[in-house]
Amino acid sequence: MMHVLIVGAGGALGAIARYGVTTGVAKLLGPSFPWGVLTANVLGSLVIGVLAGIGESRHVFTTEQRLFLFIGVLGGFTTFSSITNDTLALLRAANYVGALGNVGLSLGLGLAAVAVGFVLGRAGA
């Protein structure tokens, strides 16, 4: 149960940070393109990469710290960072088919799911 609370606390902070980044960037650059979401996705990917590199090379994160930072904070900030981190792990393991599959399936199935959900939501309106 403690791990659930740790992830939840991190997730709340990440979601608040995502809201701040996306709205701030949208105000700065305008609403013509989702620059705020793109910024959160790229920034989250950069941060998870830095933390994963530190964690692997220095072995500094406890299980609870990894749960809080990787799944909680960064998961709340952007799940895209988890997809990119998992894909990098597949590439580093020379699992190129798995890496391509992860990217393709995540994007393709995610896009299909949001389209189906949109149609279902409109049908119920």
Helix content: over 70%
Round the mean pLDDT to the nearest integer and report it.
92
Seen as an oligomer or otherwise, the chain set is single chain
User: What Rg, in angstroms, do the CA atoms define?
Assistant: 17 Å
Note the total helix count. Answer: 5
Shape: globular
Number of strands: 0
Q: List low-pLDDT spans.
A: none
Q: How widely separated are the two ends?
A: 38 Å
The amount of beta strand, in percent, is under 5%
Largest sheet: none
- The SS-based structural class is mainly alpha
Element string (H = helix, E = strand)? HHHHH
Description:
There is one protein chain. The chain has a domain at 2-78. With 125 residues, it is mainly α. 86% of the residues lie in helices and 0% in strands. α1 packs across α2 (35-58). The chain is built from five helices and no strands. The protein has helices at 2-29, 35-58, 63-77, 80-92, 96-123.
